[in-house]
């Protein structure tokens, strides 16, 4: 039986993991490679590396790190951040990314997803959607959640799937950082609209939030989080134990 | 030395890294002489069946791979590489495959019940169907990582393992020295590395 995936997300800036990390026994807690290895051996099903670097030097550092991670981590690796052109896809895929997530790049160039899907296959193209409620509707935000595009979210996500996006990461700006649980109404609306895998992001504060997510929306494929894993509030093996006790299929 | 067939499809960096992590020397090559000298051959692949087969034909690599496999050299097809081992593929048309294993490749929608998402993406468990030397170091029920929309059918004799996705889906095949994995061993953590290790220990059969 296919299992629900648990995905830690690492925000990387100038080659270092940005959000504070607190783990016993890890020498270099801000090294993305060390942290990626740690998660791999502790039950992560997949990793997301998100490059929040702005400079060209930082980009180079990021791809160097990606290559190092790919040499040591043998689970799927998704890379996002700063993906605006096919050349950006190429740059990270050659360094070991298995999937590439696009966000603002797809908003600026609506053909990007179709072009990438044609060249690399849909399985490789992930749409990352930052969504926030505005005037009673779900809106797509760009530029790290700072800019309201005015586009209705569900329609946009459907268009991207039609264009070839093979997977969707739905990040709720409303619940992100609040740690009161995932944005279930938004996630349900997305799952009802598309038939490709959907990854929930934004809002996880404890293991129970993942139980609620998978029990409430059985068609959700994965849960993604950053700080609760980085700060050790939730250990992935413990989380999977709790999910298994609730008869939610997980890989252990 | 293990040779990875380079025919312009897919990203081979992860595969090379995973082999190197288990101490297996590999070379990415399109040179028939290097393939002939290799201890084992891996046929990787992502993308569409028809395109991939055409690329193998255009380069003449198809004939070399078939000849070497028939001469007993261990051959492992991964993902689309596994699908290419079969006689036929029905992906955007009908295409002849390498014909090393009896059976064909069909859209998953024809095999699994409605309501299951396609592509089949994620970690799923293996149910062993027959003895397979590549499973020497792993056990029935172990999880591996899948990403595919098409699957092998009409290949009962060679199915080594299935995975449950609403219906049994061909996950691995074996026919003598020819092996196939629908999943990605190079992305399947420790379990995947153990499968690659077992393959790297295969040697040309003395026939």
**Could you tell me the radius of gyration of chain B in angstroms?**
15 Å
Unreliable runs of chain A, pLDDT <50, ≥5 residues? none
| Subunit arrangement of the protein | heterodimer
Shape of chain A: globular
Distance between the termini of chain B: 21 Å
Strand content of chain A is: 15-25%
Task: Label the CATH architecture of chain B.
Answer: 3-Layer(aba) Sandwich
Sheet-strand content of chain B, in percent, reads 25-35%
Average pLDDT score of chain A: 92
- The spatial strand order of the largest sheet of chain A comes to 1-3-4-5-6-9-10-11
CATH domain fold name of chain B: Rossmann fold
Under CATH, the homologous superfamily of chain B reads Class I glutamine amidotransferase (GATase) domain
Which structural traits does this protein have?
heterodimer; A: 252 residues; alpha/beta; TIM Barrel; eight-stranded parallel β-barrel; 10 helices; 24% strand; globular; B: 207 residues; Rossmann fold; eight-stranded mixed β-sheet; four-stranded mixed β-sheet; 25% helix
Kindly describe this structure.
The complex is a heterodimer of chains A (252) and B (207). With 252 residues, chain A is of the alpha/beta class. Chain A has a single domain, classed as Alpha-Beta Barrel (TIM Barrel). Chain A has helices at 32-41, 56-72, 86-93, 104-108, 112-120, 153-163, 184-193, 207-216, 227-230, 236-245; strands at residues 5-13, 16-17, 47-51, 77-80, 99-102, 125-134, 137-142, 147-152, 167-172, 198-201, 222-225. In chain A, strands 1-3-4-5-6-9-10-11 form an 8-stranded parallel β-barrel, surrounded by 7 helices. In chain A, helix 1 (32-41) runs parallel beside helix 2 (56-72) and helix 8 (207-216) packs across helix 10. The two termini of chain A are 13 Å apart. In chain A, 52% of the residues are buried. With 207 residues, chain B is of the alpha/beta class. Chain B has one domain (2-200): Class I glutamine amidotransferase (GATase) domain (Rossmann fold, 3-Layer(aba) Sandwich). Chain B has 6 helices and 14 strands. Chain B has helices at 13-21, 32-37, 49-59, 61-70, 80-83, 189-200; strands spanning 2-5, 26-29, 40-43, 75-78, 86-89, 95-96, 101-107, 120-125, 127-128, 143-148, 150-153, 159-164, 168-175, 178-181. An 8-stranded mixed β-sheet of chain B has the order 2-1-3-4-14-13-12-9. A 4-stranded mixed β-sheet of chain B has the order 6-5-7-11, covered by helices on one side. A two-stranded antiparallel ribbon of chain B has the order 8-10. In chain B, strand 1 (2-5), helix 1 (13-21) and strand 2 form a beta-alpha-beta unit. The longest helix of chain B is centred in the C-terminal third of the chain and has 12 residues, at 189-200. Chain A binds chain B through residues 1-3, 5, 40, 45, 67, 70-72, 74-76, 93-96, 98, 120-124, 166-167, 195-197, 219, 221-222, 251, and chain B through 11, 13-14, 17-18, 20-21, 46-48, 117-125, 143, 145, 147-149, 164-165, 186-190, 192-193.
């Amino acid at each position: 039986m296919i299992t629900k995936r648990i995905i830690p997300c690492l925000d990387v800036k100038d080659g270092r993991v940005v959000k504070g990390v607190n783990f016993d026994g890890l020498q270099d807690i801000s090294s993305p490679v060390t942290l990626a290895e740690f998660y791999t051996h502790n039950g992560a099903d997949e990793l997301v590396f998100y490059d929040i670097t702005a400079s060209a030097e930082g980009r180079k550092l990021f791809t160097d790190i990606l290559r190092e991670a790919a040499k040591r981590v043998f689970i799927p690796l998704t890379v996002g951040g700063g993906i605006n052109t096919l050349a950006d896809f190429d740059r990270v895929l050659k360094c070991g990314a298995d999937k590439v997530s696009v966000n603002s790049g797809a908003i600026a160039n609506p053909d990007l997803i179709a072009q990438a899907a044609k060249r690399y296959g849909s399985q490789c193209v992930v749409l990352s959607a930052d969504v926030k409620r505005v005037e009673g509707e779900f809106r797509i935000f760009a530029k790290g959640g700072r800019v309201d595009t005015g586009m209705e979210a569900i329609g946009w996500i459907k268009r991207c799937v039609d264009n070839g996006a093979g997977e969707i990461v739905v990040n709720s700006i409303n619940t992100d950082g609040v740690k009161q649980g995932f944005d279930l109404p938004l996630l349900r609306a997305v799952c009802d609209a598309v038939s490709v895998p959907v990854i929930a992001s934004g809002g996880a504060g404890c293991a129970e939030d993942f139980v609620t997510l998978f029990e409430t929306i059985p068609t959700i494929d994965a849960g993604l989080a950053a700080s609760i894993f980085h700060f050790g509030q939730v250990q992935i093996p413990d989380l999977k134990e709790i999910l298994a006790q609730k008869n939610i299929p997980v890989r252990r | 030395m293990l040779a990875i067939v380079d025919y312009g499809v897919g990203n081979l960096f992860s595969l090379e890294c995973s082999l190197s992590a288990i101490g297996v020397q590999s070379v990415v090559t399109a040179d028939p002489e290097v393939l002939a000298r290799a201890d084992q051959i891996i046929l990787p692949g992502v993308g569409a069946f028809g395109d991939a087969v055409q690329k193998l034909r255009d380069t003449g690599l198809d004939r070399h791979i078939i000849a070497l496999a028939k001469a007993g050299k261990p051959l492992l097809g991964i993902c689309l590489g596994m699908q290419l081992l079969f006689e036929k593929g029905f992906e955007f048309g009908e295409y002849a495959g390498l014909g090393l294993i009896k059976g064909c490749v069909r859209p998953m929608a024809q095999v699994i019940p409605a309501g299951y998402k396609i592509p089949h993406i994620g970690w799923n468990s293996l149910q062993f169907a027959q003895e397979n030397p590549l499973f020497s170091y792993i056990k029935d029920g172990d999880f591996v990582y899948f990403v595919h929309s098409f699957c092998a059918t009409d290949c009962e004799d060679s199915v080594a393992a299935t995975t449950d996705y609403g219906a049994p889906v061909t996950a691995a095949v074996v026919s003598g020295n020819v092996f196939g994995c629908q999943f990605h061993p190079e992305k399947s953590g420790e379990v995947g590395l153990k499968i690659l290790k077992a393959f790297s220990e295969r040697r040309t059969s003395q026939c």
